[in-house]
């Protein structure tokens, strides 16, 4: 009887140990994947902000060039300024969110 119990324990032990190690490994891997996902989402959002700012600056530059060419504005400058202000506001909010995430806002 003792031999049967001992054989059962020695037969089950490797599977249990491997199961525990794999559970720990998967948990660690999941945390790493979530961190990568978050970093990638932040990178994409940051890139979108940069593109939006670049478009706003291009629109504002074009509006100023047209205004200078005509000698007066025809609403282009105001639209360019509005787009620029919206883009900067979104960028500042994103920047604050990133600072809060990294703990720099403390």
Would you kindly provide a brief summary of this structure?
The chain is mostly helical and 106 residues long.
Descriptive report:
This protein is mainly alpha-helical. The chain is built from two helices and no strands. The radius of gyration is 29 Å and the shape is rod-shaped. The mean pLDDT is 87.
The main pleated sheet reads as: none
On the 0 to 100 scale, the average pLDDT is 87
Determine the number of helices (DSSP H or I, runs of at least 4 residues).
2
CA radius of gyration is 29 Å
Strand tally, please? 0
β-strand percent reads under 5%
Alpha-carbon distance between the two ends:
65 Å
Q: Which regions are unreliable across 5 or more consecutive residues at pLDDT < 50? A: none
Return the structural class.
mainly alpha
Q: What is the approximate shape? A: rod-shaped
Helix content: over 70%
Element-level helix/strand string:
HH
